[in-house]
Each structure stands twice: as C-alpha cells, then as structure tokens.
Amino acid sequence: MAGTVEGIALEAVTEWLVERVEGLRPPLLFSLIAGGHSNLTYRFEDASGAAYVLRRPPLGHVLESAHDMAREHRIVSALAASSVPVAPTFALCEDPEINGAPFYIMGYVEGSVLHDAAAAGQLSESQRRELGFDVIDVLAQLHMTDPDQVGLGQLGRKEAYIARQLKRWNKQWEASKTEEVPQMEAVSRLLEEKMPEQIGTAIVHGDFRLGNMMVADGRIAAVLDWELCTLGDPLADVGYLMNNWILPGEVEQAVIPTAVGGFPDREVLCERYQQTTGRDLSGINYYRAFSHWRLAAINQGVYKRYLVGAMGDQEGVDLDAQRQGVRDKADVALELLS
C-alpha cells in the first residue's frame, strides 16, 4: 500500500474498512479534497475503481464539542429516507486508535461542487436558473421534513434556536479570538435586543450554500457538510443562503458562484420559499445579520487553527485576508441591523 496522505493512517484504516465495507478491494488510494476549512474530506478509490469519501476532524487541537463525526453520520444517514438528496453512508469509526480521530465513510456522489463563479459558468444560463430554483426547493423540503419522522427529533432542543446560537457562538468567539473586535460585541448585543419570536421548528443545515452541494446535470445530487446541522429556526438557513446569493455587480471579485449571473435573484427565491413553506420572510434581514455574525465567529476559529498549525498545509492561505474577513462580516451585520 503505497502513498501516504496526512490525516490517514493508511494501513489501519484499510484494515478497518475491509471488515466493514462489502466488496472493498485494497489497495486504497486517498486524496484530500480541496476546499475544506473544518472537517477534512478525503476521496479514495479501491483496486476496482469504486470511489468513496472519508470524513474526519481537522488535525491538531479542536474546540470541545466541535467536529462530532458520530452526530454528522447520524444526520446524513437519517436524511437518506427523506426528499433531501444526500450521499449514502457506509460505516462509522468512533475508535480514535484507528486513525487518530473518529471518521465515517460515505459513497462518492458524481458531480461537481460550484466553489466559485468560474465553476458555475460551466453551466448554461438556463441550467443556472433551474439550479437556483432547485436550491431553494431543496431547502424548503429540508425545512418541511419532520425531524421526529426521520429519527432526528432528539438532535437538539427545538425551541429558542437564535438564543442558543448566540450563546454558543459567543462562547466559541471567546475561545478563538486573538484580539478584540468591538463590532462583534456590538452585533451580539443588537441580536439579543432585536431577536424575533421563533415560529415552529425545523432541521437547520447551518451552512446551506452552493459550495456545500454536489451538482450534476444542473441539479443538486447531494447536500454536503452537515456538521453544523441542528434543530431550530429555519429562517436562519434562508438568511445564510441569501448572504451567499451574490449577483453580478455586488462584489468586485467573482468568488461566489452566483456572481456569474443567470441565477434567480433573492426576491424570486424568497417568494418561492414563502409559497412552498408558508413562512413569512419579511424580517429576513435580522437572520442575514445573524448569519454574517455567526460566520465571522466561525472564520475566526478557522483563522486561529491556521495560526496554530491545526489545518495542515497553509500554502496559498492568506491569513491577513482571513483576519480582515472577520471584521468585514461584523460590519455588514451591523449595517443590516441598523
């Protein structure tokens, strides 16, 4: 078994997999899938060419309670019975002696991840428009999925989602911050003061955007990266998606897939979501502000992990831009709340 990849104990992992994945034929060839800033995702093939995915926590020290592989595996497995497209799951390893940390195995879903405008530009304009509708329709289906019926009713508390999230991310912010950022505390205070009443409960993805979806033939083949999923207020997902739904002319650099053009605009998607779910989106700016603030806290955690070397190879990583991005997101959140 030749070829080593950081984060994979090849011999031990192969031995463990052969006993649990039917038909698996070593040797296995692993490669790290680029783009992950939290849990690490590897694609691997066996001798027959069959492809799989391994998910594990980042290397080095991580925040307590973060990167729960068993929880993520449980969520993806449960949603296989729903109308939300997810990858099939095969096995979960909770023994850190095998690979230094827990991990789980999924099937590899063919398609592409639209990480930027260049990738989205490979689709025709009509495909982009239909994909936009598919994105909001899949989100609506997720939010209309009864967590109790798919076995996720105990995934988390169903009430007071925003209050719980504020508490969680304030704590994570304090654990990860490397210097004072006054606008983060200002946004936190305003989010507390302006907090709306939660209407109903849904399965909340927590990171629902095109960069976390496998796309094939202009439709979503699988929603990925469920590590932030919980139960709570579905409008938080909608606000987050709208923040990531950047249309031409809104940003200077075309790093967001939708910036290439051809996608439905925010108003069209919000109207479609309202008609499908019956939920009122008139106060969506609060949730957009919350999502910017939460993402700033998450990005600060990523920034600190890079600083301490817990994210592996740092080649091509602009730490100054990562640091400034935290402040930029906090500034935008303040503007949305004003």
Structure description:
This protein is an alpha+beta fold and 338 residues long. The chain has two domains: 10-107, Phosphorylase Kinase, domain 1 (2-Layer Sandwich), CATH 3.30.200; 117-337, Aminoglycoside phosphotransferase (APH), C-terminal lobe (Aminoglycoside 3'-phosphotransferase, Chain: A, domain 2). Helix content is 41%, strand content 12%. The chain has eleven helices and nine strands. The protein has helices at 10-18, 69-79, 96-99, 117-120, 125-144, 161-176, 182-193, 235-243, 266-277, 284-307, 319-337; strands spanning 29-32, 40-45, 51-56, 89-93, 103-107, 202-204, 213-216, 219-223, 230-232. Strands 1-2-3-5-4 form a five-stranded antiparallel beta sheet. Helix 5 (125-144) packs parallel to helix 9 (266-277), helix 6 (161-176) packs parallel to helix 10 and helix 7 packs parallel to helix 11. It is globular, with a radius of gyration of 20 Å. The mean pLDDT is 91.
**Helix and strand pattern:** HEEEHEHEHHHHEEEEHHHH
Main sheet strand line-up: 1-2-3-5-4
- Which shape, going by the Cα principal axes? globular
- Kindly identify the CATH topology of the largest domain: Aminoglycoside 3'-phosphotransferase, Chain: A, domain 2
What's the alpha carbon Rg, rounded to whole Å?
A: 20 Å
User: Helix share of residues?
Assistant: 40-55%
The structural class is alpha+beta
Mean pLDDT: 91
How many beta strands in the DSSP annotation?
9
Largest sheet entry: 5 strands, antiparallel
Total individual domains: 2
CATH architectural category of the largest domain: Alpha-Beta Complex
The CATH superfamily name of the largest domain is Aminoglycoside phosphotransferase (APH), C-terminal lobe
Beta content: 5-15%
Q: What are the segments in which pLDDT stays under 50 over at least 5 consecutive residues?
A: none
**Distance linking N and C termini:** 59 Å
CATH class membership of the largest domain: Alpha Beta
Q: Total helix count?
A: 11
